[in-house]
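Journal club side-thread
Mid-discussion, someone asked how the predicted structure for our own chain would compare to the paper's figures. Pasting it here so we can look after the session.
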Amino acid sequence: MIRQRASWCQAGGVTSAGFPASAKNLEAKGGVQRCRGDRVRRACGVGVGAFSLAVKKSIRIRRCDVAPLDIPLFEPFGISGGAQSMANNGLVTLVLDDGSIGYGEAAPLPAYNGETQAAALSALRAVQAWIVGFEVSDWRDLGREFRRRSSIRSGAALCALEVALIDALTRREGVPLWSFFGGAGTRLETDMTVTTGTPDEAARATRALRERRIRTIKVKIGGPLGPAHDFARIVAIREVAPRAPLILDGNAGLTRAEAAILVQLLKRAKIKPALLEQWLPKRDLVGMRLLREESGWLVAADEAVRTVADVRRIAEAGAADVVNIKLMKAGLAEAMKIVKVARLAGLELMVGGNIESILTMTVSACFAAGLGGFRFADLDTPWFLASNPFVGGYAADGGKLSVAHITAGHGVTPITV
């Protein structure tokens, strides 16, 4: 059941609107901090600077629309678990009583975690039957209610719903999303991906990346052709971009033996990756720890981290140095908790995504820049899409992204509107 929330936050909590509560203009009494300002900097919540926002009156949800969002790619996007030639996503449009509108995207990726467009759309269409009439400021409670009611586990669907709720609320209040998430910054730098394929294809893709002035290259590895094939592709990339930092992403597609062979090949060639991202199966935490220890390189957990509990397990096992936070895994509320727990555990942060349009990639850019402290960013998928059904979004100068120009919400709107 969704309960009306009081207008206070405990340390580490949020205001009644769901915004991180400000540490300035807060009155602490008995461990409870009462929010008094409208828009003030420096927040508790996730432990970084943020805007608090007092919603002047309750605004209820009038309509929720759900539609497929199918966007073709220039060429198939291949990872160790398979390839996808179309972004088979979904779009949520929320309309409030006063006419304010918010948009959210579901971007399931079957080759990544088995989630499908059909399942995400089914879960979201079930929301339409009960969400009308609720207050948009109760976005966290509505997310919990979604999980309670849904018979389908879809992190992508939950993400779409939460983003649409927060976008509608922040657009109405005139607050940019990067401020909502903390206001620590408005810029970050993304890598760009070389997907699975042949060494010649990898070299060609790398040349295109260099022409785009991308500094860091992410390389998809793993799959049936084995570590020798991956090594040949990495060498081809290195020949084109000898000084580019390399993130080698296995998408949980390598065995321990294959990982050991690839590490040996790279060391013999004196190639030191910037990051080894989820080479091993997500439950092989012991193997991940051994990979860290034996390679001496940074290891990131991606598929192995979906929830706060997963972060704690990773930290306790010493299985990773970095956690890759993707909003599509379990939604925005869980991602905010993951950031806090990862920081407390001494883990570094990376932000990434599935095959997402400029909409969710901009949300993720606002998330990482607004919170601050993200060492790695992988927000490149809009550049793989053959069309863009939206206006707005992050501004890019090579791999350098900026959200400073966004004045309310995430700033992305469907072209048909």
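Post-session note: Residues 1-54 form one domain.
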